[in-house]
Structure formats: structure tokens, C-alpha cells
Design brief:
- The structure holds 2 protein chains of 2 kinds.
- Chain A is an all-beta fold.
- Chain A has strands at about 5, 10-15, 20-25, 30-40, 45-50, 55-60, 65-75, 75-80, 90-95, 105, 110-115.
- In chain A, the strands form 2 sheets. In chain A, strands 2, 4, 5, 6, 9, 10 and 11 form a 7-stranded mixed β-sheet that branches.
- In chain A, strand 5 (about 45-50) and strand 6 (about 55-60) form a beta hairpin.
- Chain A starts with a strand and ends with a strand.
- Chain B is an all-beta fold.
- Chain B is built from no helices and 11 strands.
- Chain B is globular and about 45 Å long.
- The termini of chain B are far apart.
- Classes of the chains: A mainly beta, B mainly beta.
- The interface of A and B includes residues 34, 95 and 102 of A.
Chain lengths: ~120, ~110
Amino acid sequence: GAVVSQHPSRVICKSGTSVKIECRSLDFQATTMFWYRQFPKQSLMLMATSNEGSKATYEQGVEKDKFLINHASLTLSTLTVTSAHPEDSSFYICSARDNRGSWGYTFGSGTRLTVV
Amino acid sequence: RKEVEQDPGPFNVPEGATVAFNCTYSNSASQSFFWYRQDCRKEPKLLMSVYSSGNEDGRFTAQLNRASQYISLLIRDSKLSDSATYLCVVMDSSASKIIFGSGTRLSIRP
């Protein structure tokens, strides 16, 4: 089945620094990947749609200059949280759909970001 | 109104019981529907797709009611391992993004 690898799984950083999260599709090509954020006891909220070779599409209320998305290849999308603040602490998850089948979306294992 | 709504629960039921969740969606043009399961602090995992004719996978049955714009998930003979949050997922009509419900927490007690 489709596998999406996400790294790192956990990161602690200081306020003001930047953190890069990688999302890779291991056995399929993903022209589109999605980035979600999940606060404790809340649902996943779509932040942006990452499109290979073009600019990402951000959801309303998500700052594109703060959450930089790069989708340079068919198997890799990155999310960089710039100038992180404690309120950015959250669980970030990427997902992609393997268009070869109809098995819904596959998720990365998530990245728990803590900004101190 | 939220695009996808679920009862957050928690549902606390004894092992062996049958439990059902509903999920309503607001966009009548939505085309694809899924149930995902999410364990605490883990990523969501696909449980099953939901087809118009309804579908069954072992103890799990999913149904879609387009007229009333809801989908349901029925779990029979519940196991302790079924304890999780169940997320209702709807794909929009352009198939460009998926929208999650807030999830229904299920706890199975011995």
C-alpha cells in the first residue's frame, strides 16, 4: 500500500527559530500533498495544499510567509515553520493520495512541534 | 454551520456492544466519503471508504444517505482495541481537498 514518511516525528525548538518538516511518498508519486495541523482534542485542520512545481494553496487564516511550503519533486513536500512561537506548538501531519487506487488518503506519522 | 459535523462523544460502551456514529455534511455536491480511525497522538488511518450502496468490512458497516447528507459507521461486537477517535472525512466535489469532522471518541470498557 501507499506509504508516506514524515520527519522529524518530534521537535523542540526555541522561539524565533525555524523548523523544517519533510513529507515523502515512498512508493508512489504525489503531485498533491496536504498539510494539516491538529491541536489537542481538536480535529485536523487543513493548512495548505502543496502542488508539485507550483505555489501552494493556503487556507484562509494561514500565513503563507510563516508556513513555507515547497514541493520540489513528485515525492517530497516540505513545511517550514518560520520564526516559531509557542502558539505554533501543535501536531503537524501531511497526507497524500495514491492515485493508483481508491484507498483514500495516506498520512505521514506526524510531527509534534513544541516551541519553548 | 460546519462543513462536516460529528458528535464528539465520548461514547463509553461495554465490550461486545454495538455502537453507531453519524456524520453530517453540508455540501450536497460532495463526492467521496471515508471513515478514519485515529489513536491518541498518532496519525489517522483509513478505516473504510463509504459507498452509496453501503459497505461492510467484518464488524464494521458504513452507509451513505445522500438525501439527508449523512454517513454512518456501525461497529458490531466491539472490542477493547476499537477504542479510538473516529473521523468522518468528506472529499469536496472538485476532489481538490478533504475535510475532516472533529471526530467521535469511542471508549470500550471490559
